[in-house]
Design a protein that fits this description.
Number of domains: 3
Low-confidence stretches: none
Mean pLDDT: 96
CATH topology of the largest domain: Vanillyl-alcohol Oxidase, Chain A, domain 3
Bound molecules: flavin-adenine dinucleotide
Radius of gyration: 21 Å
Largest sheet: 8 strands, antiparallel
Strand content: 15-25%
Helix content: 25-40%
CATH class of the largest domain: Alpha Beta
Length: 456
């Protein structure tokens, strides 16, 4: 069947009859299987404007795709129009700023700015898109030193729902720093550049899961006194058959304790010593390395096409019982690809005033992510998703009050989204939504409905 694209679309239009369609409709999460009527790959803001106007004129459901890593698959729709921003890859360094197009991936931005001894704090996986990660907050290796990604967003050029184009004013910038894709399509992000040492001291140690409680305690003790320059996280996973791991650990559950230091490598080596020496590790992969190497070190553990279901929560400080619950969650993982992750917050993230951005949980001690991952299509995945939900429930006593906007799942209700923002921020976001998108054209996202009652 041939689908006729509506007139007015500009850029590369892909319909179900095109050979490229199958690959073009796929997103990172292999469990998402949607069939848009049209995909338009845009090369500049004018093509984005044309696509927005067509979607609005024809009442088409609209999905906006940057890097395609939305875990609930919000960047692809059934039967509507996908605006794929992937070709918009411009990167321009301008003094202490960098301008990035909405199709840029973190690995591309990191490489371009590391050449200047600079970085924008991004996430921990280099094939993730700059767009979605920034607009929902952005937590990664450098966040304790330089804040969330959205804290470093200093400007944005936006295509609005009425087809107009403009620079974000202060209030819209506030909303774009955590409020997601609700207000328009960002066609240019401007970030602050921060100095980083090249190389920096970073890496990880691996221990059998029997040492996980001890290892987590060592990491949390270190986090309690560590300077902002120290980034820390832990992953409880099933060990791959990697040459750097002893054969007896292959296929067994392990804890990976990872860290980095934004500062002189010899200082980093001293500061991170407690993490490396609390017990003799099965593998110690700490060394001076460029930030770009650190950023891609675990990329292969989450490849495109793996099916995913995630539950995530901001946490208060974990006591012994909390640590124990986290390890029990990891012990119960049902798929060898699943991961139980703990990211340590604090530092510069917590120093920004509460209302400086639309991001809420600055004062959380950590974030837990229960990532159910399994290969499609051999497995419907229900058992793995149930593990994530059950473990998330078991960890709820340590909740700081809600979840991360960029991690909310398909089956989490509107109440979870409100919780992720809190009442004051929610109301301020609704005001912005009414101003910029009163008809809710940009609805396929963590949606702030314009008709929502303020103060309700
Ligand atoms: C493997 C993996 C690792 C991750 N690691 C981290 C991490 O370390 N830290 C972290 O904070 N998060 C992390 N995340 C979560 C990540 O922040 C979100 O999935 C984010 O949405 C990905 O951005 P994207 O551009 O790739 O996604 P997309 O699926 O392309 O976009 C997601 C949504 O963002 C909006 N959007 C994207 N671009 C634009 C734009 N230019 N204008 C307007 N709206 C836009 C749209 O609403 C879209 O539906 C990870 C996710 C995955 C899958």
């Amino acid at each position: 069947m041939t689908t006729i694209a509506p007139t007015g679309l500009r850029g590369q239009v892909i319909t179900p009859s095109d050979a490229e369609y199958e690959a073009a409709r796929r997103v990172w999460n292999g469990a998402i299987d949607r069939h848009p009527a049209f995909i338009v790959r845009c090369h500049d803001a004018n093509e984005v404007v044309a696509a927005v106007n067509v979607a609005s004129r024809h009442g088409l459901q609209l999905a906006v795709r940057g890097g395609g890593h939305s875990i609930p698959g919000l960047s692809v729709c059934d039967g509507g129009l996908v605006i794929d921003l992937a070709p918009m890859k411009g990167i321009r360094v301008d003094g202490n700023l960098v301008h990035a197009g909405p199709g840029v991936l973190w690995r591309e931005l990191d490489a371009a700015v590391e050449a200047h001894g600079r970085a924008v704090p991004g996430g921990e996986i280099s094939h993730t898109g700059v767009g979605g990660l920034t607009l929902g907050g952005g937590v990664g290796w450098l966040s304790r030193r330089y804040g969330l990604t959205c804290d470093n967003l200093l400007g944005a050029r936006v295509v609005f729902a009425d087809g107009s184009v403009g620079e974000a004013d202060d209030e819209l910038l506030w909303g774009l720093r955590g409020g997601g894709g609700n207000f328009g399509i960002v066609t240019r992000f401007t970030f602050r550049l921060n100095p980083i040492p090249v190389p920096m001291f970073a890496g990880m140690v691996v221990h059998p899961i029997e040492r996980a409680r001890e290892g987590l305690r060592a990491m949390l003790d270190l986090a309690a006194t560590a300077p902002d320059g120290i980034g820390l996280n832990a992953a409880l996973i099933t060990a791959p058959a990697a040459p750097f791991l002893p054969a007896e650990l292959h296929g067994r559950k392990v804890i990976v304790l990872a860290g980095c230091h934004v500062g002189p490598p010899e200082e980093g080596a001293a500061l991170l010593r407690p993490l490396r020496e609390f017990a003799r590790p099965a593998a110690d992969l700490f060394r001076p390395m460029p930030y770009t190497a650190l950023q891609s070190v675990v990329d292969d553990s989450v490849p495109h096409g793996l099916a995913a279901y995630l539950r995530s929560e901001w946490l208060r400080p974990l006591d012994g019982a909390g640590i124990d619950m986290l390890v029990r969650a990891a012990e119960a993982m049902t798929s060898p690809r699943s991961q139980t992750l703990l990211r340590i917050m604090g530092g510069a993230i917590a120093r920004m005033p509460e209302d400086a951005t639309a991001f809420r949980f600055r004062h959380a001690a950590a974030m837990v992510s229960l990532a159910a991952l399994w290969p499609e299509p051999d497995d419907p995945g229900e058992a793995h998703a149930a593990w994530a939900r059950d473990s998330w429930r078991a960890l709820h006593p340590w909740s700081a009050g809600g979840g991360y906007v960029n991690h909310l799942g398909r089956d989490e209700n509107a109440g979870r989204l409100r919780e992720a923002y809190g009442p004051q921020t929610w109301d301020r976001l609704v005001v912005l939504k009414r101003r910029y998108d009163p008809q809710n054209l940009f609805a396929l996202n963590q949606n702030i409905p314009p008709q929502d009652g303020i103060g309700s």
